[in-house]
Amino acid sequence: MVKLPLVASAASLAASASVNSTCNVDYIKGFLPSNTTVFYADHYDYNSTFAFPQDLNYGSLTSPHPTTSFTVPKAACYIQANISLPGDTQHSVGIILPDEWNGRFMTVGNGEFAGSIGWAAIIDASWYGFATVSSDLGHEGNNGSFGYHNEAALQNFGWRALHDAVVNTKSVISGYYGQNSSYNYYRGCSAGGKQGFKEVEMFPEDFDGVIAGAPAWWFKRLQLWVVVNTLWNEDTTASSYLDSATLEAVAAEVIAQCDPQDGVVDGILQNPKGCVFRPQTLLCGASINNATCLNGDQIALIDKMHSDWKTENNTFVFPGWMLGTEASWSTTGPDSDFVTYIQYMLQIGSDWTTADWNDDLIALSDSLNPGNATADDFDISPFYNRGGKLIHYHGLADPSIPTGSSYYLYDQISASLVPQGIDLDDFYKFYLIPGMQHCEMTSQDAPWYISGDGQNTALTGTVHGVPGFEDAKHDVVLAMMAWVENGTAPTDIVATRWNNDMPADGVAIQRPLCPYPSQATYVGTGNTSLPENWNCTQV
């Protein structure tokens, strides 16, 4: 079992010896473009409290886990600056420079429409010893209104701001520590996963290792899917309408039918894609007649939700929901934030409402490709050729971004690279996480924690890394470092779930995650909650 030390090297310790005295605005500004505004550069001791200025970080208050103050895990210099971008635009970056620097750099990604610095993510990265950065991508707030009649802002969001943050933070690192970072990494999930793939495609020299979870890579199609599928179940008077109680019953029936098909009855769907599910068992009739039995129209809608989205002429548009996501399907129509993609990023305007939906939006979205945000340049051979490594993961119970989009992405990259004689396994590992929802957590009591981006914030207490398992077998960050720096390619990565999602309460279950297309199968004897009783096999 490979275990990498979370301590600074002798060289980086020497470089860090005098950093306290240089953690100030004037010094930091010298390593950034001349028109940069550095708001603050302040040193924080271990276990002190960092509270970001809310007037500079409005967008952070709209994140999934809004937190305004944090316990500092490692003494470091905390910086926030505005850096100019083309078109009279700018973006705000948060940078953390640890005193005990590990000699490496990690950039983190964003969520949904971004619009905030990911302070929680870079603070977690600093715990490992990384110098680290996050950008708000040039706007504040979590919707698409920033992009209306503003092409520069769209390009900032789509790719430009993140790359600019990488370039400028590398300059700050070099000046502050007196040496360049020895290795450069990226970690992001959701929109952050998309950003990771976009960096791999456009700027293969930026990173040595990229960890991309649940990537929203097909941005121009995904943003339409998250609206249209909720329209199908919006009308509460429709005979097909599925209310929350009915969806819970459908979800329970999915588990009842699919769980035994993977060989172990434990409430976890190891391979939902391989399950044959018949919702007809819930049809109202003589043997079943209750508030949650189904009529034929409801059966048809369930099948539609689980199937690929296609146009009226049977053209594929986007993958449908995976079995095991039903309890999280919308019952109230589209989220207003996602509607703003159509209104403002597609340049239609605020007069557009969901009553105006038609499939012509697909061609419009494809042609505009707002901000060039979609990461669909599948020939990532330049990243492979320069020695880059990529770990891609996705929860099999994701109710926000269909897991099928990651299968599709992997297959498209494979179709591009295999004819070039490239073995994907040499540099690209794809892990499916049974039972995990969007980037984190589970509805199936499944193990899901691998220290992916943002996962620590979903646990109770202040958590960094994988408590009790700080090694490359359990921590995806350390697995990536071992691969990039030692040439030790990851095989299975063990996912963990703690009792009550609280590490202090002890481990509830661990199970290996296997690089696709293999999957974990039970050996037939022993406790199914222990990872040693599972093997990775081709199925």
Automatic annotation (TrEMBL):
Entry-linked PANTHER family: CARBOXYLIC ESTER HYDROLASE (PTHR33938:SF2), FERULOYL ESTERASE B-RELATED (PTHR33938)
The species this protein was found in: Coniella lustricola
Similarity comment: Belongs to the tannase family.
InterPro entries in the record: AB_hydrolase_fold (IPR029058), Tannase/feruloyl_esterase (IPR011118)
Key words of the record: Calcium, Disulfide bond, Hydrolase, Metal-binding, Serine esterase, Signal
GO terms for MF: feruloyl esterase activity; metal ion binding
Signal sequence coordinates: 1-21
The EC number(s) this enzyme carries: 3.1.1.-
Protein name: Carboxylic ester hydrolase
